[in-house]
Amino acid sequence: MTFKLKSLPFAVACVVASGALAGAAPAFAQTTEAAGGSTPQRVVVTGSLISRTNTETPTPVQVLTAQDIQKSGKTSVAELLTDLAANGAGTLGTGFAGAFANGASGISLRGLTVGATLVLIDGHRMAGYPLSDDSQRSFVDVSSIPFDAIESIEVLKSGASSLYGSDAIAGVINIKLKKNLNGTRLAAEYGDTQHGGGKTRRASISSGIGDLDADGYNAFFTLESRKQDAIKVYEREQFGYANRDWRARGGNNINLGVPSANVNSFLTPTNSPFLYNPAGTNPAGVANVDNPANYVFLDPTKCNFQKYRAGGCQVDDRLSNIQPETENVNLLVGMTKKLNDNWELALKGSIFQRQSENNRNANPQAYSATAFNGYNVVNSSGVTPRVGAIPSTLFAPGARVGAGFTNPFGSNARLYGYIPDIGPTLRTLNKSTASRVSADLTGSAAGWDVNAAAGWTKVKIDAEYSGNINRQNLYNALYNGSWNVLGGNSPELVAAVAPTFYNTLESTLTYADLVGSREILPSFGAGPLSFAAGVHWHKREQNAPPSSLTAIGAVNNTSAFTIGEETNSAVFAELRATPIKNVELGVSSRYDHYDTYGNSFTPAANFKWTPAANFGVRGTFARGFRAPNPAEVGNAGSSFTFNSIRDPINCPNGSRTTAGNVPSACSFAPPYLQTTNPNLEPEKSKSYTLGIIYEPMRGLNMTLDYYKIKIENLVVTRAGNDPSFVPTWVRGPIAPIDIATGVGNGTTVGIPKAGPILYAESPYINAGSNETHGIEADVRYRWRLGNDMGTLSAALSAAHTFGYKTTVGGETYQLAGTQGPSSVGGATGNPKDRAQFTLGYNRGPLDVTATVNYTSGFSTIDPALGETDCATTAEHVGGRLYFTGMVQPAQYCNVSSFTTTNLNVQYKLTPNLTLRGAILNLFDREAPYDVATYGNSGAGTSYNASLHQAGAIGRFFSLGVNYTF
């Protein structure tokens, strides 16, 4: 095994591991002292129900304190968690414009998708985002959680279904909000990017009264506002990943409005609409598409045939986003009241609101040149294809072509052009409001430590949609002469062609928990025997209907929808003992009942052995499960695309120039309609960890953990996950279309062998397994320099994946270090290595922190998709046209490693006033090419938004001030 960290993190790892640098408190003395340093305080660490004094647990837990968060230089929780070394394939970032859950952000521990990572708030479940990832996986949107409300974040990197139930297969992220606060804190921050766009403003106020010990209560609030401007793709066109002209890199020019033999057979909308005669009379040896006499440009001041063929009528994309515009307003209020010496009641309420504007970065809406095949309507009764279809969109000789134009040709003409006046394509103004009310009652009675909790959580999305086209209304307006193809149409007419419409989507979760723990035997071997038991109940309701106009197929295919509910009740227990000196053992189990499928039993066990004062061995075993959710078994549906194919009938060899082939059928992304399956069984997992804890010298702490997780009964959609899946294509009627003549790029209008592909159904299935294993290392060092010169601290968190295997239909595919599984979460890629190194220096009022984030490179192939040829990964894996019709250059077979450095400096001017400055991506590292991902800012960009978003944003500066009183 070779652990490849090829840049600065590897060098740092060597230095730290060697002891040349000699984190935190010693690994075997991590106790929280009570006032006066007399009695260690017992705390409950995520992954256990039983309180303890030594927080170095048998299960690997990474803790980010409020101080760590502030020193990161980040401005959002989503940015912070994305950089976790344990975050892997399937992570969801806000830079993925085409995501179903556009604008939200989710974490994928160990690369097992956001659906296998359970996110808790104060140890309790939170309602999932109403729009599921890939329209399937439920997740908590971490982008809506405010910085200033957080006390700490605990990342449990082990399966934990035996305590927390469904979804905790890969691990748990427990975000602990502030419990109490005294005084008032004001904060303000401003940031900007070096290359344009992305201005960020953040302001907050936190205030609290009452001392819990002296007054018996504490009440507080935190109010935060954050606004982040958009970064447009055109603001990064100087960088290769945002430049659409690939000719100098061995590819095609895919700029809008540029004709190309490989991409569009020389027929494409441009900056002026034009009429095209597909049946012209041409000189000998001149193809129809090459004859200027077959074109009439309707705005000759912008374009003519010569300019068009030379690429001089290009349309600049001024609308697509690298980073969408967002605005957050967050409020947290809380009160803790001592009821008596033994009992406390903590009440919290919060409203976290995020508003974002997204347009999916799709190409501008264009006229349908030959026909419109309609929209597909999906509901609980099935699929209705071709709703609103227009069999022919041709214009007869002399017929009106909107206002002021007629067809001058002696035969039917096509209209090519972008539709004016409608604004960004597929625009969504999304307002997400996450509301939460919780009550926690803690105390002791009859020797039991008791924690009773109840809560109500809700995430509501109010969505405004525009930029969708009612083709029936559009062509009626063209044929009757009321629509002006050059623009300037009346608001009333635009509203009929591209209506604005609205939708409300909701997800609610109500929960109740009761947990009791105690020592049931004061002496059991070398220590007490501790026991904890609890009951849990929650009801989850998801009411995310399709938007009104897409539900009837008026303006688009039916939008993703999920309507359903589930009720879960569970009992669980944990035992912990020290049967012999220095050996800690724990067992736990949970029994769940879901009304959607039945019952699950999940046991777990762990141990920690410390044969020496500075050395320990720990390990865990856990079974886990993920219950099928309403999006998979309820009333739900969606349509999706992810890769490019060739029509097996109309373009069997994939060549646009072979006689008889339909060029437009040689490379396109087919729609799949997602269907649910009420007979799904839950996913089941087994996970193991085995590690060491080592303190070679005072102040230097190390942990190294091996992990292995296998998930069986995977719930997946067949398309892209089952290599044996042969789609049953539903086709439209056969109609005249351009067919290759076999002479150069020549085409002629003819009758194809089959109608166009409309869609194929792709059901959810229980299929095969995923297995991943690797190691994770955490090294921390803290060193007080002599002569009062300050304190140095260093921390390294690194993860290496040995393997990531998926098995379907008896075939096993190794995906570690590849783009796969590309059908999941935007083809995020599956790098083997991720690392984060933090180096800090503190002296008096000065605090300096540098953080280096490293992600290794990976191949763009996806064996699970059957794509192992580097010459076609852009097209066949990512569905991109960079090299369509050409041989993809070898350098694009691999995605390069990516390293960024962040610098944060704080200076306390007075005991109350602190100034802060930060530079993210200090060395302005550019995002590397990833030609096989579709999880980015649209078809015109070629970087990985989930892994390399910092390289697309570029160097970011921020200044801030905090004042407390």
Largest sheet: 22 strands, antiparallel, barrel
- The poorly predicted ranges are 1-38
Query: Care to count the β-strands?
Result: 46
| Cα-based radius of gyration, to the nearest Å | 30 Å
On the 0 to 100 scale, the average pLDDT is 91
**Shape, principal axes of CA atoms:** elongated
Structural class: mainly beta
**Fraction in beta strands:** 35-45%
The total count of helices amounts to 12
Measured as a percent range, the helix fraction is under 10%
Distance between the termini: 55 Å
Structure, described:
This protein is mostly beta strands. It contains 12 helices and 46 strands. The strands form 8 sheets. It has a 22-stranded antiparallel β-barrel. The chain has a 5-stranded mixed beta sheet with strand order 3-6-7-4-5. A 3-stranded antiparallel beta sheet has the order 13-12-19, with no helix packed on it. The protein is elongated, with a radius of gyration of 30 Å. It starts with 7 loop residues before the first helix and ends with a strand. The model is unreliable at 1-38 (pLDDT under 50).
Q: Layout of helices and strands, plus pairs?
A:
Layout: H1 8-18, E1 32-33, E2 40-41, E3 61-65, H2 66-71, H3 77-82, E4 117-121, E5 124-125, E6 150-156, H4 161-164, E7 171-177, E8 183-193, E9 200-209, E10 217-228, E11 231-232, H5 261-264, E12 274-276, E13 295-297, H6 305-309, E14 321-323, E15 325-338, E16 344-358, E17 375-379, E18 382-387, E19 414-416, E20 427-445, E21 448-466, H7 471-479, H8 491-497, E22 501-524, E23 527-544, H9 548-551, E24 561-580, E25 583-594, E26 598-612, E27 615-626, H10 630-633, E28 635-640, E29 672-675, E30 683-697, E31 700-712, E32 715-717, E33 730-731, E34 737-740, E35 747-750, E36 757-766, E37 769-784, E38 791-808, E39 811-814, E40 833-843, E41 846-855, E42 858-859, H11 873-876, E43 894-895, E44 898-908, E45 913-920, H12 945-953, E46 956-964
Parallel strand pairs: 4-7, 29-36
Antiparallel strand pairs: 1-2, 3-6, 4-5, 6-7, 8-9, 8-46, 9-10, 10-15, 11-14, 12-13, 12-19, 15-16, 16-20, 17-18, 20-21, 21-22, 22-23, 23-24, 24-25, 24-28, 25-26, 26-27, 27-30, 28-29, 30-31, 31-37, 32-36, 33-36, 34-35, 37-38, 38-39, 38-40, 40-41, 41-44, 42-43, 44-45, 45-46
